[in-house]
């Protein structure tokens, strides 16, 4: 009898403790003592509302001149959602994408605009969005870019080209050679700003189709195609020394 009573009191005390803790967390969040995101868990992924591609392009272009390619592309997609949907997108600091410039802190790997688009797609669609960024990357590599033409360009240039790669150093390097300019030139800045807008526009177009149920996959998964994570154009940089990859070990 005493054992049962003690157990019941313990359970009641535990419920009271948890209830009190919940009230304390809610009160602290309301008072601004802890971030709201810690007080309530948002459903993930965060969802999507259709964006005008021209709007995404304008924001991305201007964003490049503020914090470069990754920030620009992410802003072109996420800033409209922050405005049109609000929470939870308003909790995401766009400045968290600055690291992705120049293929991640200038290392020349995946083009920063693709980094930014991928981050945005993940927030919007989670795992379901991976095929969309796969298609955006394939489109980037095979398309003559830039396409985007701003209303008030900062500089003019003559060359557009297919990078045949998703890598920053190949995309930029091949274009610089054709245009005959150095990296720190107004023409190169403008070219990258326009390509950042192109990536935001393309991504939004695919996302609009996705939310309407009209999206169709155009590119197979890289690992399944090449039996490991890789580009498909190694010899344009590495000559005959590209290591072979067995299909089965």
Could you characterize what this model shows?
By secondary structure, the chain is mostly helical. The protein has one domain (53-233). The chain is built from nine helices and no strands. The chain has helices at residues 2-30, 36-39, 53-84, 112-125, 130-142, 168-179, 186-211, 222-226, 235-238. α3 packs across α7 (186-211). The longest helix is centred in the N-terminal third of the chain and has 32 residues, at 53-84. The N and C termini lie far apart (66 Å).
Major sheet description: none
Q: What is the alpha-carbon Rg in Å?
A: 24 Å
Count of discrete domains: 1
Give the overall pLDDT as a whole number. Answer: 83
Separate helix tally: 9
Q: What is the percent of helical residues?
A: 55-70%
Give the number of DSSP strands: 0
Unreliable segments (pLDDT under 50, ≥5 consecutive)? 12-40
Can you tell me the overall shape?
Answer: globular
Strand content: under 5%
Sequence of secondary-structure elements: HHHHHHHHH
Q: CA-to-CA gap between the ends?
A: 66 Å
> What structural class do the secondary elements suggest?
mainly alpha
Give a brief rundown of this model:
With 249 residues, the protein is an all-alpha fold.
Topology:
Elements (H helix, E strand, L loop, with lengths): L1 H29 L5 H4 L13 H32 L27 H14 L4 H13 L25 H12 L6 H26 L10 H5 L8 H4 L11
Pick out its properties:
single chain; 249 residues; mainly alpha; 9 helices; 0% strand; globular
């Amino acid at each position: 009898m005493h054992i049962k009573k003690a157990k019941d009191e313990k359970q009641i005390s535990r419920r009271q403790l948890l209830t009190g803790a919940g009230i304390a967390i809610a009160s602290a969040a309301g008072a601004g003592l802890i971030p709201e995101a810690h007080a309530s868990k948002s459903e993930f992924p965060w969802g999507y509302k259709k964006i005008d591609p021209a709007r995404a392009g304008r924001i991305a272009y201007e964003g490049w001149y503020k914090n470069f390619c990754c920030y620009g592309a992410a802003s072109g997609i996420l800033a409209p959602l922050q405005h049109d949907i609000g929470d939870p997108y308003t909790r995401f600091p766009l400045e968290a994408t600055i690291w992705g410039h120049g293929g991640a802190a200038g290392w020349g790997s995946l083009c920063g605009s693709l980094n930014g688009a991928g981050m945005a797609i993940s927030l919007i669609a989670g795992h379901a969005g991976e095929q969309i960024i796969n298609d955006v990357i394939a489109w980037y590599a095979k398309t003559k870019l830039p396409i985007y033409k701003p209303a008030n360009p900062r500089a003019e240039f003559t060359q557009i080209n297919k990078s045949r790669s998703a890598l920053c150093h190949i995309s930029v390097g091949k274009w610089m050679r054709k245009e005959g300019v150095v990296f720190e030139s107004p023409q190169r800045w403008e070219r990258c700003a326009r390509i950042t807008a192109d990536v935001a526009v393309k991504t939004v177009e695919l996302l609009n189709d996705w939310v309407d149920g009209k999206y169709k996959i155009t590119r197979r998964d890289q690992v399944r195609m090449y039996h490991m994570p890789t580009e498909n154009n190694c010899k344009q940089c590495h000559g005959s020394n590209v290591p072979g990859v067995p299909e089965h070990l």
